[in-house]
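2.7 Reproducibility. Because tokenized structures are sensitive to small changes in the input, we list the exact sequence used for F-box domain-containing protein, including any N-terminal residues retained from the expression construct. No trimming or masking was applied before prediction.
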Amino acid sequence: MESNTQAIIPGLPDDLALRCLAKLSHGYHGLLETVSKGWRDVIRSSDYSNYKSREGWSGDWLFVLTERSKNQWVAYDPEADKWHSLPKISENSSTGQHYGFSCVSVCNKFLVIGGSYAPHDPIFPNQKPFISSDVMQYDPFTKSWSRAASMRTPRSHFACTVVFGKVYVAGGRTSSCARGLADVEVYDIVTDRWEDLPPMPNPQMDCLGLSYQGKFYVLSDQVGLPEQKTSDVFNPSEKTWYTVDDVWPFSRAMHFAVQVMTDDLVYTVVDWGESCIKSRYTEKGEWHHVGSVPPVHLPDHPRPLETFGYGFAALRKQLYVLGGRVLKWEASGEGRFDIVKLNSVRFCDPLIRPLNWRETRPMCAPAFGSILGCATMEEKASS
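Resulting structure tokens (single pass, no recycling of outputs):
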């Protein structure tokens, strides 16, 4: 029988043993808890979570929400090569499918912001969706959700990004505004407060937010089209908006089509029937072809299939392609097909050419199919 005074790791002082366990990333926690009751109690203790929080040892996370998952987020730990489910968000509005939200990581917290909830009521099938101002935050140290301060304006399908440790939101849809919003807000997670900012020059909905060169870019739903060559840009230091002539060669149909890695190196998916990946360097405004999103090979299908509805994420020095769906055509040639939902995860280092895509552990249940939201969190290197 184990006693309450038994050492965490025999032969080591408990403070050093606690440090050793705290250095292990979140993907190992399930395995650690099976070692002994003592280790399970340590991993679930406030001392453990507080120690990791104090040291900033959040680990690296890849958060994903897929279709038909009943708002159940899952997370990937690349160090442990392990997927695990997060606790469900216990909110009354979560009974319907959540969509049109934004998700970002800031200051070792993962935020799910705003969005719409589609009611599932067969008696009243034409109900309008509920548009939310809620902000829910996930703490990787306590592994729990909590409510943060709500946005001042409920919105869905809006631009959102993090610039210098603050969350910026702009535009979007509301139930009462058909043309889109010009309203802009910024959130300070330290004070847990939202602040109104000067409105955008033009109202926008179905827009995409991007942090680029220390500025907040708002890209409209027309971006990628030949006639759309301007972007609205907010300068946080001057609190002013201006318009720049620029070309972003991606389709807004890919909600997660832009990823900014270190040194403002941008990667985007151009999905006009080709799913090619392009990159852009800060000192040059030109886009360069990097490679393509690889097709999927199903074991019972004779030819490779192009994926759609997948997620596109950057974590450390890797690009990830997650989930999605493919159309599996019948071999008889009668024009019939099945939609196959995927849980596969592929990644590559975009600096190595040609791109060498590799598969890692597939997403865990209930995650499969089209990606509704994905975001990453990176642990800061120790000084």
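The first strand starts at residue 61 and ends at 66.
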